[in-house]
Amino acid sequence: MRVGFPIILVNFKTYRESMGHKGLELAKAAERASGETGVCIAVAPQTPDLFRIASGVGIPVFSQHVDPEEPGAHTGSVTPESLKEAGVSGTILNHSERRLRIDLIEEAVRRCTSSGLLTCVCANTPLAGRAVASFCPEMVAVEPPELIGSGVSVSKARPEVVGGTVRLIKEVSSGVHVLCGAGITSGEDVSAAIKLGAEGVLVASGVVKAKDPLKALMDLAEHSIPS
Ligand code: G3P
């Protein structure tokens, strides 16, 4: 499944509202919003829901994490190969809620790339973003941890973080797409991010916990198209 930019990447995290059957319904709402706006919307459900959702919708599905282990004797790990087999398009790596050592991020990106999986590596600061961009992931998402789940958007509260990450990464790795996340809830938050040079957003509670997730997704997607 191809990914396009701008992108709205919806991290389902482990919210009750986004697991099991509800997760599939949420993914279908994302598929509908993507179809109606023409904007790429990808979803990142919990691991047990990946196969069902990837089989049930025609939008890119991402994992929230992957382990860099090779196929073989490694109990409890999830490999890039198994995600690929499940129909998954890519994975988030190094989320603030699932941090990885820098050498493991590099290894995971390398393993994913050779397995045909896209990677979206999270970073908590612009400098950390530049460091992980040197591993050549498809995307880097900058997220100040203190704004995650706050409803206060990074693009409005910390515009220098978004603009600074775009500048630092594009100087050295022009092919890496820069996203931002944390506290994104409205279309205006997305427009502000796009104006700062971001090529998409990583969002969770603003969609998953919304009273009307389809409406929330439509608002985010409509405002992601640069004017
Ligand atoms: O992965 C996205 C995330 O960390 C942002 O969370 O709830 O602030 O949109 P939220």
Question: What's a concise summary of this model?
Answer:
The protein is α/β, with parallel strands linked by helices and 227 residues long. Helix content is 41%, strand content 15%.
Q: Give the helix proportion (percent range).
A: 40-55%
Beta-strand percentage range:
15-25%
**How does the major sheet shape up?**
8 strands, parallel
* Count of individual beta strands: 8
Radius of gyration using CA atoms only: 16 Å
**Distance separating the two termini:** 26 Å
Structural class: alpha/beta
Order of helices and strands: EHEHEHEHEHEHHEHEHH
Pfam families: TIM
EC number: 5.3.1.1
Catalytic activity: D-glyceraldehyde 3-phosphate = dihydroxyacetone phosphate
Pathway: Carbohydrate degradation; glycolysis; D-glyceraldehyde 3-phosphate from glycerone phosphate: step 1/1; Carbohydrate biosynthesis; gluconeogenesis
Question: Could you describe the 3D structure shown?
Answer:
This protein has helices at 20-37, 50-56, 80-85, 102-115, 126-133, 154-157, 159-172, 187-195, 205-208, 213-222; strands at residues 7-11, 40-44, 62-63, 90-93, 118-123, 139-142, 177-181, 200-203. The protein has a single domain, classed as Alpha-Beta Barrel (TIM Barrel). It has ten helices and eight strands. An eight-stranded parallel sheet has the order 2-1-8-7-6-5-4-3. It is globular and about 50 Å long. It has 227 residues and is an alpha/beta fold. Helices cover 41% and strands 15% of the residues. The model has no long low-confidence stretch (mean pLDDT 97). Helix 8 links the parallel strand 7 and strand 8. Helix 5 packs parallel to helix 7. InterPro entries: Aldolase_TIM, TIM_sf, Triosephosphate_isomerase, Triosephosphate_isomerase_arc, Triosephosphate_isomerase_AS. Belongs to the triosephosphate isomerase family.
